[in-house]
Amino acid sequence: MKQHMFAVAFLATALTGCGLTQGGGGEEKVAAPPKTASASASAGQTAAPQGEGMIATRRVNDDQAVLKVEVTELRREGKMATLSWTLTVEKGEHWSVGTKMGRHNTDYTVSNVSLIDVQNAKRYRAAMSQGPEGTCACTETDATTVQTGGKLSFQATYAAPPPEVGKVNITLGELGGLTDVPIS
Predict the structure, then answer these.
(1) What integer pLDDT is reported at residue 37 of this predicted model?
(2) Which tens digit of pLDDT belongs to each residue from 162-177?
(3) Which of 80, 25, 83 is nearest to 56 (CA)?
(4) Which of 47, 145, 155, 160 is deepest in the core (most CB within 10 A)?
């Protein structure tokens, strides 16, 4: 736990030193939760008790594969928040991550995964270092292909919503989203 706290403190200091950009990490006003592109939800979303290793889950149909998305942690630490989740390929021969959670067709990161503060109508994007080639404080996906039964883990860091916000919605790029995910 101490190593985790040190790593988050180090990351927060490093990102502050690089300078976070508003458009590349931080908050934006939103009118309503965004609509998703090509993925469709099947059975919907469920919440789980905190002690079971996940705090929200949902199944998604994408590219003839059925994926199970599990949010394992959404933790506020000072002015930063860290989101961790996994994707498991439950059905289909294989599934390719590619740019499905990136901001554009050459973005092999999870930079398009956002936290939506419905209470204050704000979107929090993954933190990015300043500059034209800003680096996302998140997992790089590459062109990873996962076989049935395979699991991938992801993580992204954000500016934290205000302390009074106890739940947020999460958008997962082309893979849809989850609602009312608790922040610890």
Answers:
(1) 34
(2) 999 999 999 998 889 9
(3) 83
(4) 160
Contacts of 32 (CB under 8 A, 6+ apart): none
Calculate mean pLDDT across residues 129-133: 72
The first and second tokens of residue 182, run together, are 């608790």
Per the structure, the complete domain to which residue 145 belongs is given by 2-182
Q: What is the pTM of this model?
A: 0.71
- The set of residues, in sequence order, having a beta carbon less than 8 Å from that of 69 and lying 6+ positions away, is 57, 58, 59, 60, 85, 86, 87, 172, 175, 178
How would you classify residue 117: left for phi > 0, otherwise alpha for psi between -120 and 50, otherwise beta? beta
- Two tokens at 56? 């929200």
Q: What is the CATH number of the domain that holds 146?
A: 2.60.40.1240
- Split at pLDDT 50, 70, 90, the class of 132 is low
Name the burial class of residue 20, with classes exposed (0-12), middle (13-18) and buried (19+) by CB atoms within 10 angstroms of its CB. buried
Neighbours of 163 (CB within 10 A): 8
Query: Collapsing DSSP states into helix, strand and coil, what is residue 175?
Result: helix
- Domains contained in the chain, number: 1
Q: Where are the beta strands (DSSP E) in the chain?
A: 26-29, 40-47, 56-62, 65-77, 80-91, 94-96, 113-117, 122-125, 145-147, 151-159, 167-172, 177-182
Quick one: how many helices (H) and strands (E) in the chain? Answer: 1, 12
